[in-house]
Structures are given as C-alpha cells and as structure tokens.
Amino acid sequence: MEKAKKGGFLVFEGIDGAGKTTQAELLCKRLASRGTPVFATCEPTDGPVGRLIRRMLSGTLPADQRTIASLFAADRTEHLTDPETGIRRMVDTGIIVVCDRYYFSSYAYHSQYMDMEWVIQANRLNADILKPDITLFIDVDPQICIKRLQTTRTHLEIYEKIDIMTQVRANYLAAFNRLAHQERVAVIDGNDSVENIAKAVWAQVRLVI
C-alpha cells in the first residue's frame, strides 16, 4: 500500500508591516513549483466571525478587548474545523497549509489588555486541535513597520500605533519563551532583503516538511 503523503501546517507571525504576508506568498509559490499541494489562508478569516472582527479592528465597530479576544478564538476554531475548508482536514489529506497569523497573534496582541495566560487558555482547544509544525516570526523594528504602514495605508487599524507595536513585539518574544517547550518557533531577521528573508524561511521550512 502506498504511504499517504504527509500534510503540514506552517504559520507566519509578525507585527503589522513586518512583511509576513509577502513571505507567506513566496513560500506558497516555492512549494507549488515543487509540485507540493499547498493552500494559503489567513486570520481573521472571511467567515461571519472573521468579518465581524475586521470591523472591530478597523474601529467602525467598538468592542471590549475581551470580546475581540474571544471572537478571535472562536473564528480560529471554525477555521480549523470547517468540514470542507478546515485546516485540520486539509492537513490530514496531505496538503501543506500556510497561514498568515494564528494563535501567537492572539497571545501577543491581546495580552496588552489582559493576562497572557487567559488568552492562552482561551485558545487551548485550538492548540489541542492543531499546533503548527513551525511558526515563522518575521522580526522587524517597529519603527520600520510603522513607516511602511503609513506609506501604504490610507487608514491605520486600532493596533497600528508605534507604542502598541513595540509592546506587541515584546509580547511575541515573551510568548515564545513561555511556550518554548511546547512550540517550534523560528525567529527570522525581517530587516534583511526580501530575497534573503525568503532563503532563511525556506531553510527553516525544510527542517519540518
């Protein structure tokens, strides 16, 4: 009997403007060029809960930060378990799923407003359903990120402020340290060229797929 191809779950993380979306796209193209079944996705999703979250992030729908954190966890569960497009199903059928943001985003962004352990516990079900094979954190100076956003956006979201972005980066690093025994994380210098960052990403991905 032919052995079933192994799927995988690769996650990109970073503060806003770090270039993780670009790197996720490049990785998907590289995998596809090798004949690897690959699916690109992101959070928040385009589902009903995800659309609600996007309104809150834009500031058009004010909401308590605990509400936003809870909705992110719920959107993530649906993202994982949808019977047709769920990440868990895709990975189980041999597809490499590349996701732009996952639960480390919640740990980093929401722990500005509440205890990080609360956020981790709120996402415990999601971690039990599926942990990434690797989380790729594109680490860029917040000052560089805010300048990028100011030149490419007409409207900044509620978390896209230099003081918040600086704290979020620190929270990411704290979360990685806190969960080092449970999660595989690669911190990649995102201040380099797009091409060199892509090479560093690929070197890490090759270790897990």
From TrEMBL:
Single GO BP term: dTTP biosynthetic process
Cellular-component GO terms for this entry: cytoplasm
Domain named Thymidylate kinase-like: residues: 12-199
Pfam families per the UniProt record, alphabetical: Thymidylate_kin
Residues annotated to bind ATP: 14-21
GO molecular function (one): ATP binding
Reactions this protein catalyses: dTMP + ATP = dTDP + ADP
Keywords, ordered alphabetically: ATP-binding, Kinase, Nucleotide biosynthesis, Nucleotide-binding, Transferase
Enzyme's top EC category: transferase
EC code: 2.7.4.9
Family to which the UniProt record says this protein belongs: Belongs to the thymidylate kinase family.
Protein task: Phosphorylation of dTMP to form dTDP in both de novo and salvage pathways of dTTP synthesis.
Protein name: Thymidylate kinase
Organism lineage: Bacteria, Pseudomonadati, Thermodesulfobacteriota, Desulfobacteria, Desulfobacterales
